[in-house]
Design a protein that fits this description.
110 residues; three-stranded antiparallel β-sheet; 53% helix
């Protein structure tokens, strides 16, 4: 029968290896997750939940904002957030509010 402490040690080692691969920082003082401002392609893939090949496709077609230093690609998290949200799908309420605002500002034409 295996020693239970050995099993616990093995599991702890696996957990440590997994934690080493996580690319976010946790502030011990406030227990907050701090995301890096600049991400590499692997971090971006994890952040957006898309494949590396899809990100490479977006960069090669210049459809995603990025920086290149040598052969390495870098992505600014704030710019990526803006890019992701720039094609917002408007709700019916948003459209009706825009129409109302437009009509109230341009009453003289009607």
């Amino acid at each position: 029968m295996e020693n239970p402490f050995e099993i616990i040690n093995q599991r702890l080692e696996r957990i440590e290896k997994l934690l080493e691969n996580i690319n976010v920082f946790i502030s011990r003082d406030e227990n907050k997750v701090i995301l890096p401002k600049v991400m590499n392609i692997k971090q971006l893939s994890d952040y957006l939940g898309v494949s590396l090949s899809y990100i490479y496709k977006l960069t090669s077609t210049h459809n995603i904002p990025h920086s290149k230093r040598g052969k390495r690609l870098y992505f600014d998290r704030e710019i990526i957030n803006t890019w992701v949200l720039e094609n917002k799908i408007w709700t019916q309420d948003d459209i009706e509010n825009q129409v109302s605002d437009y009509l109230s500002k341009n009453r003289k034409h009607f």
